Amino acid sequence: MKIAIVGTGYVGLVSGTCFAEMGVDVTCIDINEEKIAALERGEIPIYEPGLEPMVRRNVAEGRLKFSTSLAAVLPEVEIVFSAVGTPPDEDGSADLSYVLDVARTFGRNINKYTLLVTKSTVPVGTAAKVRRAIEEELAARGVDLPFDVASNPEFLKEGDAIADFMKPDRVVVGVDSPRARDIMARLYRPLMLNNFRVIFTDIPSAEMIKYAANSMLATRISFMNDIANLCELVGADVNMVRKGLGSDTRIGSKFLYPGCGYGGSCFPKDVKALIKTAEKAGYDMRVLRAVEDVNEDQKKLLFKKLERELGDLKGRRIALWGLSFKPETDDMREATSLVLIDLLKRAGATVRVYDPVAMDECRRRVGDTVEYASDMYDAVVDADALLMLTEWKQFRMPSWEVVVRAMRTPLVIDGRNIYDSSEMAERGISYHCIGR
Fold first, then answer.
1. pLDDT at 192 over 80
2. Mean residue pLDDT across the chain
3. 409 and 313: one domain?
4. Whether 372 and 414 share a structural domain
5. Using one digit for the tens of pLDDT, what is the confidence trace for 193-230?
6. Is pLDDT of 295 > 90?
7. Average pLDDT rounded to a whole number, residues 417-421
């Protein structure tokens, strides 16, 4: 089977590489010529564990190719996946311009039955717009060619994306024709042989499932952050509360960890887009508005704790451990670190940062407005406080003797609750976390 994937960002590159690993002949397409040239040299534009060797292997074995032209590969492929970006507009709704550009290129160039599958996260009703755009291009050409559209939302976790693709909880496929269903069933047959669930739905339901899933996970995070903040006020321990909640089989333990706010490419954008979709349908998503408000406040929580401990921050040196929104990625989209850097700089503090993989991304985003440390211990030299933002494994068991000797003031504010308060007290560290 031959397929094309338009867009070599996180979703497109991971999906294309994993399909190639399953034996599919894949061409990944991007209009960015520099990116395609780099990929052909084996240079990967994103950090994802295990992705680079898999790309190199499948390129070497001829199953994975790269191109800048969808039109050039359309005669050869059965399926085109659209994995282009859907960034939020100013009002929070998803920008579908790239998705519709792919549809128009598809309509202008197909010469046989081909299936166009949207893998990008898109609002309900997008497939109808995609179909209409293709039909308009076919009419302009004066041809009547058969085609289908489908929805196949991705559920990849950054940092564990390859395992998520190869061993998924479920694969959701929205179709509206038997032919499209048969083609998608053939594509995903290797997963079905391993008894992974491939769920076929109508297209609007598939489009809604992705938004609903991300919004539910975001809701759990904001709910636990609200509970954690209340625990601090009434003297409860959120870790004990979390264990009690998670042991209820109706609730489960996942996504019940309090912290300093969620970020990344999915949750913030998808919550906003679902709220906007509801607005357009005349409905107010009151719960999701609260989820969003709690998260925005939570990103400022460590700054408020810091102010309570140190007072005026002008001239203070503050160290940050972790910049990416989560471990095992260099993604800083909507990261709490960006909010804190801005707040600290406006307060007149000097900020020194360290992250195992996101330093270049931080330089791209904030330039020389912060100091860049060579390692985690260099970050805390002469620091008045350390803020722990991303729970990278190497931060979990630091040499506290080295940290205390290096810091001006042994103050640690833990945004991920990964340290033991009694151990910190024994070492003479003023320790503050969330919900305890």
1. no
2. 95
3. yes
4. yes
5. 777 788 999 999 999 999 999 999 999 999 999 999 99
6. yes
7. 95
Tell me: do 369 and 287 sit in the same domain.
no
Residues 33 and 116 in one domain: yes
Domain range for residue 385? 299-432
Give domain status of residue 206, yes or no.
no
| pLDDT reading at 254 higher than 80 | yes
Do residue 197 and residue 236 come from a single domain? no
Q: Are residues 218 and 176 in the same domain?
A: no
Confidence check: pLDDT of 306 > 90:
yes
Please check whether residues 36 and 171 belong to one and the same domain. Answer: yes
The answer, yes or no, to whether residue 146 has pLDDT greater than 80, is yes
CATH classification of the domain holding 217: 3.40.50.720
Tally of domains in the chain: 3
In a domain, 351, yes or no: yes
27 and 171 housed in the same domain: yes
Cβ atoms of residues 246 and 224 within 8 Å: no
Q: Taking 90 as the threshold, does the pLDDT of residue 87 lie above it?
A: no
Listed residues 244, 273, 297: the one ending a domain: 297
Mean pLDDT, rounded, for 38-65? 92
The predicted-structure confidence for 356-366, as pLDDT tens digits, reads as follows 999 999 999 99
Catalytic residue among 18, 28, 231, 266: 266
433 is known as an active-site residue: no
Would you say 331 and 361 are in contact if contact means Cβ atoms under 8 Å apart? yes
pTM of the model: 0.89
